[in-house]
Structure formats: C-alpha cells, structure tokens
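Hi everyone,

Forwarding the result from last night's run.
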Amino acid sequence: MTDALLTPTRLWTPRRVMITKSAAELPHTTEIVRRCEAAGVSDIDVLPADRLTGLRGESERETYARAKSTLAVVVAPPSALKPQPIPPSADWRIDLAKGCPAHCQYCYLAGSLSGPPVTRVYANLDDVLAPIATHVGRGTITSGTAERGHEGTTFEMSCYTDPLGIEHVTGSLAAAISRVGAGEFGPGASLRFTTKFDDVAELVGLDHGGRTRVRLSVNARDIGNRFEGGTARMPARIAALRALAQAGYPVGVTIAPIMPVPGWREQYGELLADIAAALADVPDVDLTAEIITHRFTPSSKDVLLSWYPATKLEMDEDSRSAKRSKFGGVKYVYPKDTMAEMKSWFTEELRDVLPAAQLLYWT
C-alpha cells in the first residue's frame, strides 16, 4: 500500500490544442482529446494540413508565451522513430513528445529544438514504441555491462520532454509503462524517465512489472525556487518519489543542474537528508543517483536570454572552462577545481546519507 496521495501541486493544462491532419484519425489522438476535454480544454482545433501555424507573436516574449501554452498533436517523422544511443543515461532514446511545458531558466532544450517552444506529442504511439522490440539486447550503456546489466536494455523517454508534465493530457506515458510492464516488447526491455512534476496517482496503479525506473529531478532549494518555474516544488517531488517507491517502481534522483550557489553544501545536504527520510521506511528500495553540473552553450545562452531577459542565472563565459566536442561544438562548464570540489563532496555525502543509492554517473 502506498501513502495517500495529495492532489498534484502542479498540473499544466494547455490553453489550445492543435491537431495536424495526419494525426487526427489515429487512435491515440482520441485518447489525447478525451483527456484534454476532461482537463477543461475547449480550444481544440483540427488543422487542414500538417503544418503548425499561428504560434509566432509580435515579439519573442509573445511567441514564447503562445507556444508554451499550446499542445500540438502531430505524427512523429521517420527520423524520430530511429532510436539513438543516449550515454551516459541509457542504451537508446525513445521520444514520446518534444517540448516541455515548464519554465526552467536553464532549459536543456534551449538551442537544441528549432522554432517556437511548443510541446509536440506524437499521436502514432505504436510506431514510436515499436523499435523497443527490435533494439532489445543491442545497447552498450546498460545491456551487457557489469555495472548496469541488471537493468536490461534501457530506453530513455525524457530527452526532449518531461513526459509526466504532460501525461494527464496525453496518456502516452501510462500506455508505454503498461505495455513494457506486460512484456509486450520482451523481458529485457526497461524504460526510464525523469520529471520535475508530482502527478503520479495514475502511475502508482499501473502494472509496471518493475520495468520502468522513474527519477525525480531535484535540486537545492534556492535553485528550484528561483529557476524552475511551472514545476512541482521539492517537497512534492520527494513525496512523489516515496509514493513510486512504495508502489514497487525502481526509482532514482537526478540531481541537476548542480550549481555552487552560496551555501550549496548546506542546501544540498538538506536535500539528501529529506530524500533519505522519505525513503527510510520503504522496504527494498531500488535507488539510483545521477548528478549533472550546470553547463551552457553559446546558442542556448542566446535563446535563454531571449526567453528570460531578467534571469539571474550565471552564464559568464569568463568564469567557466570551455569544453569542446570532437565536432567543434563548445559548452561552458565549471572550472576544474570547482568540479573536483563538488564531485568529492557529493560522492562522500551520497555514501553517508544515501548509502543504498547507486551513483550511475557524474558529469
């Protein structure tokens, strides 16, 4: 039995739903429309073609606001149906949607998705999930590895969206969890996703078969309150983590993005203590930790400053180290000494406060 669940502290409901012509007749679209209507959405349009229009306003801010309040129901193109390796998280990436309703001022999607930041959910769900069956046993991140081989072949569902943030108006996540849990794609497949939302009431009732790991994205109090707009607050996320663990899900914490803000040791120490307290009486918790430091690229900085011109987020290239990829791209990370100090502290603190947590990676 799980604890009684509180009403979700944060639900995103789109003001407008746009359905492309190709998506309109697909079975999953019927479920999306049903959920949207149940959520009180009245502006639901079926478009005459597959092109999304009317998203741009007279300014960047207006375009941002209009796109962020819109859900587009589209057909995933062939390029989105070919799973890609996604180290260090999982063997493969499966996209249920692209775009996120939250307002995180450090958004990882900034600069990586083109056009207005509308959330696009894929209506051809069968096509999206089908590659799971063909890719089981073929990965290199978890499949066949000594450290994570027990996870099977892993499929990450939250690279380009927060799937729980849109779940109550899409149903895509529940469908994926149920189908993988029932063994439809073979016993070696497992899903994983991370979220900043807390609406887990539907998920805890699913027959997940232990084949989906849900990670709650958590952070220091000041960072969450200042930079993670439109998301559930930290206590609510930790309560959701507890509920999922009680329901038998493998769970995890994605501590990201770590920032050395004033008092960071004390704040992250409180966070880890709160997680430990929430899970203390839950038997046989399967818990992982993933730790990601803050970084940005020149293009993501430009996009973020256009979205959040008054942000206090530190993005000063002169105080960072430039890290270049083999393709010539650059991202700005914290200096070597700062990274080493934070890594040492978190490694020791995890060992002392959450000894059962398996640290999957630090980056």
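The longest helix spans residues 336-353.

Cheers,
N.
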